[in-house]
Amino acid sequence: MMPNFLSSDAIRTLFSQAMSAMYQQEVPQYGTLTQLVTAVNERTLEANPALKNRLSAADELSRLSVERHGAIRVGTAEELSTLRQMFAVMGMEAVGYYDLSQAGVPVHSTAFRPVSDRALRHNPFRVFTSLLRLELIDDAALRAKAAAILAARDIFTPGCRALIAQHQQQGGLNANDAARFVQEALETFRWHAHTTVDSGTYRALSEQHRLIADVVCFRGCHINHLTPRTLDIDRVQALMPSRGIDPKTLIEGPPQRQVPILLRQTSFKALEEAVHFNDGTPGTHTARFGEIEQRGAALTPKGRALYDRLLAEAGTGSDNQHHQQHLSAVFRDFPDDEETLREQQLAWFRYRLTEKGTDVPPRAGESVAQLLAEDRLAVEPIVYEDFLPVSAAGIFQSNLGDVAQARSAGNASKAEFESALGVAVLDEMALYQQMQQRSLERCGVASA
Ligand code: OOG
Ligand code: NI
């Protein structure tokens, strides 16, 4: 790397900070949510000095409440592939494929995120990115109209396109260009209260699916939520109404546990906002909200299969308290201590040598179990960095306000998504496995 280039990690951090500032201005209730998250995080740390020490040792305290993810939705292959190139400037790659059509949402998605240990530690900010599937609009005339509207817009500024190209040619951006890049990139995600369509077109698209109107009728692909990290999601959910925030009914994902797994999320319901149609008439549009998340251990395919089975068994509820109790009961079948999770290969782990292990390094033939027992190896779960399709569908649905409607029973179309994206998505399981394997190799151990 040229010495005067800003690192992609640093550009990602500048970008996430700029997005946060813009979104708090655009959606004041999101600012209120972040204040609540900060207050609950502080209280949780006061009540739990051990947690505070652990986070402090990991240098996590200062950026505890900063955003962990955001989400956007785009309409065309060209938009998706240009986003891929934009996110590449910030060290973010497409990881995973999520088919939301099974849940009645006419999109498929990926997450643009950092992948290396170092980059994730620096700033794990990721963007859940959905591509509208126009082929799921059943009215042919409307489908053609939507495609024409999308073809006529450019959601990227000329400056942004130029800086992406410059980055590709030079292999980096200096601090000045990086700052300009962040400002130009931000324009793609800004809210526009003026639609590009008349009220009739908006209504017709909205009647097909509210998401279609959200993607098609605006000049850009406005950021639709940002998501800080909370240390106590149950408490933030319970306190939202006291700050005038209307939460979605259920916390998505696994129940509260001793050893957190995967991802728990909840949001406030999307706000109804004033818009102006291009025929001069006023209206409203509902798309933007705020979310919070709490992450736990990444699961192996075996652990994930168990999670999926138990989640399906638990079903959904209409009341969060009951739902969480029921989930906890069903998830008794999911081991809840690190040792069992490791022994049964349900979760991925990161290994490191202890002081003792550095003094007496592993020799060929010594097993991981033995090294752990002798306190020469230490181990901790690898954090889940991705998303969950059932949870994502729950977040989408609570913010679309319409009844779940299966559009195509599980017609995933990963190949089409990848052809729009322009590359294959990375396999998240392979990434976690490599992380575990590399950590063992750094310790001088061949395999778990
Ligand atoms: C994305 C919803 C999914 C999550 O955290 O699972 C999501 C959207 O509403 O566009 O962000
Ligand atoms: Ni989200």
From TrEMBL:
Its EC number is 1.13.11.93. SMART domains: DUF1338. The keyword Iron applies. Its cofactor is Fe(2+). Keywords: Dioxygenase, Iron, Oxidoreductase. The keyword Iron applies. It is an enzyme of class 1 (oxidoreductase). It holds the Pfam family HGLS. Coiled coil: none annotated. InterPro entries: HGLS, YdcJ_bac-like. One of its GO terms (molecular function) is dioxygenase activity. PANTHER family: 2-OXOADIPATE DIOXYGENASE_DECARBOXYLASE (PTHR39479:SF2), PTHR39479. Belongs to the 2-oxoadipate dioxygenase/decarboxylase family. This is 2-oxoadipate dioxygenase/decarboxylase. It comes from Candidatus Pantoea floridensis.
